Amino acid sequence: MITITETAAGKLKGILDEEGQPEAALRVIVVPSGQGAQYMLALEDAPKSDDLVLSENGVRVVVDTDSLPLLDGAEIDYADSLDRSGFVISNPNIAPTGGGCACGGNCGCGAAH
Fold it and tell me: What is the reported pLDDT for 95?
């Protein structure tokens, strides 16, 4: 349902190690807006009982039940170029709004802000 590229998984593993949370997961929340959606990314130690926990390429991703249908078929990648550095979510369900996430740059996720 959600694909995590090897590049994104490797970057996430590095972030988890840097944060001293190697067993944590990446929480992905979709916030629909009038022009598409914003994505909030955060590290999650203890998923809630109704969360979906996905494991791929050696990392875990946590998605809440409201965001789950909006992420069906999405891919999480990591881009590192002169233009952009951070996690990139390609989502066939929602038109792009310029990327990044809505965490305000304080989540430690490495996303382009």
Answer: 66
- For residues 94, 99, 102, 106, the Cα torsion angle rounded to the nearest 10 degrees is 150
Determine the 3-state secondary structure of 94 from DSSP. coil
Domain that holds residue 31: 3-90
Tokens of 25: 């997961």
Q: What is the DSSP letter of 20?
A: T
* Beta-carbon count within 10 A of 46 CB: 8
Across residues 14-34, what is the average pLDDT?
91
Q: In this structure, are residues 51 and 101 in contact, taking their beta carbons and an 8 Å threshold? A: no
* Domain count along the chain: 1
User: Euclidean distance between the first and final Cα of the chain, in Å?
Assistant: 26
Check which CATH number belongs to the domain holding 70 and give it. Answer: 2.60.300.12
Q: Give pLDDT tens digits for 85-104.
A: 899 999 888 865 444 444 44
